[in-house]
Amino acid sequence: xxxxxxxxxxxxxxxxxxxxxxxxxxxxxxxxxxxxxxxxxxxxxxxxxxxxxxxxxxxxxxxxxxxxxxxxxxxxxxxxxxxxxxxxxxxxxxxxxxxxxxxxxxxxxxxxxxxxxxxxxxxxxxxxxxxxxxxxxxxxxxxxxxxxxxxxxxxxxxxxxxxxxxxxxxxxxxxxxxxxxxxxxxxxxxxxxxxxxxxxxxxxxxxxxxxxxxxxxxxxxxxxxxxxxxxxxxxxxxxxxxxxxxxxxxxxxxxxxxxxxxxxxxxxxxxxxxxxxxxxxx
Amino acid sequence: xxxxxxxxxxxxxxxxxxxxxxxxxxxxxxxxxxxxxxxxxxxxxxxxxxxxxxxxxxxxxxxxxxxxxxxxxxxxxxxxxxxxxxxxxxxxxxxxxxxxxxxxxxxxxxxxxxxxxxxxxxxxxxxxxxxxxxxxxxxxxxxxxxxxxxxxxxxxxxxxxxxxxxxxxxxxxxxxxxxxxxxxxxxxxxxxxxxxxxxxxxxxxxxxxxxxxxxxxxxxxxxxxxxxxxxxxxxxxxxxxxxxxxxxxxxxxxxxxxxxxxxxxxxxxxxxxxxxxxxxxx
Lengths: 282, 282
Prior knowledge:
The complex is a heterodimer.
Chain A: E1 2-12, E2 20-31, E3 35-39, H1 46-53, E4 61-66, E5 69-70, H2 78-84, E6 85-88, H3 101-111, H4 116-129, H5 146-158, E7 164-168, H6 176-191, E8 196-200, H7 204-210, E9 213-218, E10 221-227, H8 228-232, H9 235-240, H10 247-257, H11 269-279
Parallel strand pairs in A: 3-8, 3-9, 6-7, 7-8
Antiparallel strand pairs in A: 1-2, 1-4, 4-5, 9-10
Helix pairs in contact in A: 3-4, 3-5, 4-5, 5-6
Chain B: E1 4-16, E2 22-36, E3 41-45, H1 52-58, E4 67-72, E5 75-76, H2 83-89, E6 90-93, H3 106-116, H4 121-134, H5 150-162, E7 168-172, H6 180-197, E8 200-205, H7 208-211, E9 216-221, E10 224-229, H8 231-235, H9 238-243, H10 250-260, H11 272-281
Parallel strand pairs in B: 3-8, 3-9, 6-7, 7-8
Antiparallel strand pairs in B: 1-2, 1-4, 4-5, 9-10
């Protein structure tokens, strides 16, 4: 599996007074098994980019190649592509509609024209993968908690057996424990099932803990692409874009400024605690 | 006399089965006592489904107690004759700003409340100007709400409430759908209203960092108030918060880890500055 985004442009309402350049010369590639964070303030082009990756929008310039083939080319099977690259929208639980959880998750694979047994096996596996127990399979999705509903919605996309899963703000509106549960699901899908994950998030603290690589969008351009540690070493540039570094990275920088000789390129609470304890000789 | 006082407040929902027959009762709020004085900044934390929003809706007569009482400015919220006085005193701002916008331009939207109160047109203009200035949106008064960012929309929603000259504003997760910049704008506006205008603020949130600025925090779970105190007191009880599906700010967590490992750090560190000062002294 590979995705290549090559000089991608997208202009809304081209040639009119409402013309907006949503994506401008975006290039990067995604390899199998990566765990990527996609950040940027509202309106930076993240969601537009995500919609291009699974063929919901067509580029106005440049192209996207999935396994070497241009997905905008004549006769390309976009339906199949969307099975391979799953997109979980913001507040995906708003799209739940069936009478019970299990039937809802079956909806996607059923539309792929698979046999009933295959459909049900996929739904079962998907629900298990997101941590929904058997005793919840036949309840109405609307009787579940917010976090559970969201996991069921993710299972609906997982049942399509995607190779890549794009999660757009999967934690929005959940309580802290619910956030942790969703991110643990993403980790599990990546680590055990080998699914490539692209996580769109505003929380730098969450990204520092989970993803390996971060893409930063600003005004439709891809302005940074590197490991989480590399990206978070550009504190001033990030702040100028309305973004931030993880809170603990900022603490270390403050300490360094105050004359305490700590490393300031650490990004999680565990790392930072260890470093401070080292300096203080514990 | 306190601005808001709830005594032994109980609220039960009627649960219905598929045929619409009564299936039983669910207790969303279970014997809650709450006292909020004029000018307070109170944060209410709690996991999804803990009863926070249900409680909030009792504060301006959108819901009525099943048992117990709620008084706002000395009025019983079930007093049908006082309902409009109560709603004028306690304004509400909800999570999704788009659900609360009705005007075609910003100033029209803000004028909607006072217009309905039968205020003189000259007076309305005055109120609109003053409210929009307070949230730093006066320059955008002629803009269409659809052209605003999430944080700007939410500030217009707050101005719409301010134009009714409330004594108290209840904000139900006002930043849940915003990016970090939008969050900061809204929180800054809220703090300004509290500090400068002495408006009582009740902020319901999942974001621990936002609760740091409150005078007092109440933590709800399963319809009960399970913890209360100053941010320092509440956030020093890390494990207890976690049992309630919540967390503490990242800085507090780092300080907690350092103290556990033997560094001399007092509990309940809330800001980067506090932590730095503390470490620089040791």
